[in-house]
Write a structure and sequence with these properties.
- With 324 residues, the protein is α/β, with parallel strands linked by helices.
- It has a single domain (50-295), classed as Vaccinia Virus protein VP39 (Rossmann fold, 3-Layer(aba) Sandwich).
- It is built from nine helices and 15 strands.
- The strands form four sheets. An eight-stranded mixed sheet has the order 3-13-14-10-7-4-5-6, with helices on both faces. Strands 2-1-15 form a three-stranded antiparallel sheet.
- Strand 11 and strand 12 (234-236) form a beta hairpin.
């Protein structure tokens, strides 16, 4: 089938430079072809500068950069769509959605983290998204919000924040020991509740993600941050465990993105005794809910809706080049 040139709309940044051409048949996001190429990269080798009251958010040992969350959300949704985070923490997903004009709904079991999110919004004059204090394993199955267009979450890491840390010291040759390696880690306690054993942890995830599958629109995507862990002499490949949970819940596994934090410090675990990985990356597992045709064929009505939505936003921003 030949392409219709009228389906392509050139978009521009605020400084007038071209973003490339947006295809009105685009079902997934608001990206141009040029931008789409970069959003499909399987590795993100990047750190993010301090922002959104980072010192305050760092009270949570596993907080994620809002800018990274915004990039992920922009790859899988359109402006104004709904993103659900069942493990919201201090609100990385919610802040990311505020950055890029999406609607977020967060659920968080620890009131300390929801309070911090509200503080961050107040101090930074950021539009607050909906965040509910409660247990996702109870609240997501009773989900009464609008159907979600995407799920983006950073799961609680079993008991990673509670296990005993290495007490190995660090020093230069010829100098006295200066401290303990694990004391330099930013990883702190996420909460004092939640599952204690791996089986309990997996059972909780099965319940939450089965409910997320029901709350997500057909053809919607779910992206899940997962960090593997090394404990008691063994590497725990949690990525595989979590992938199995979501597949069992009905999701189709679509791929993996590696976030390599280039600013993350290395730790010399096991030096001179055994090889232990100093993990500087996390996986972002991507899944899709696929229950057959979504009833969207990219026809005239769909393209007209896409054009009207695009025009309304671009006129507001003054960044449309020749859309008709």
């Amino acid at each position: 089938m030949s392409e219709d040139p009228s389906d392509k709309v050139e978009l521009a940044r605020a400084d007038g430079a071209s973003r490339g051409f947006y295809d009105l048949k685009n079902r997934i996001n608001d990206l141009t072809g040029k931008e789409w190429v970069f959003c499909t990269k399987s590795v993100i080798p990047r750190s993010y500068p301090p922002s959104f009251q980072l010192k305050l958010r760092n009270a949570h040992g596993g907080q994620k950069p809002p800018e990274l969350c915004a990039e992920i959300v922009q790859a899988f949704t359109k402006r104004g769509q709904v993103v659900l985070d069942p493990f919201a923490g201090v609100g990385g997903t919610l802040l990311g959605c505020s950055i890029c004009g999406r609607v977020a709904i967060g659920i968080e079991i620890n009131k300390e983290w929801t309070d911090i999110y509200h503080q961050v919004c107040a101090l930074g004059h950021v539009r607050r998204q909906a965040i509910v204090h409660g247990d996702a394993s109870c609240l997501v199955p009773a989900f009464r919000f609008p159907p979600a267009d995407m799920v983006l979450t950073d799961i609680p890491y079993w008991n990673m924040d509670k296990v005993e840390k290495s007490r190995g010291t660090f020093k230069r040759a010829g100098e006295a020991a200066k401290g303990v390696y694990s004391d330099k880690s930013k990883l702190g306690r996420f909460d004092d509740e939640g599952p204690q054993t791996k089986d309990e942890w997996l059972a909780m995830l099965r319940l939450v993600f089965a409910a997320c599958h029901g709350a997500l629109k057909n053809k919607g995507y779910a992206a899940v941050f997962v960090g593997n862990m090394y404990n008691k002499g063994e590497f725990h490949y949690l990525t595989a465990d979590v992938a199995g949970v979501l597949k069992a819940a009905g999701f189709v596994f679509k791929g993996e993105i590696i976030w390599y934090d280039v600013a993350k410090k290395l730790h010399l675990y096991g030096i001179n005794y055994e090889w232990i990985p100093s993990m500087v990356h996390q996986s972002i597992l991507v899944f899709q809910k696929d229950e057959g045709s979504a009833g969207v064929d990219g026809g005239a009505e769909f393209k007209a809706q896409n054009r009207a939505r695009l025009n309304a936003y671009q006129r507001k921003k003054g960044t449309l080049n020749g859309a008709r």
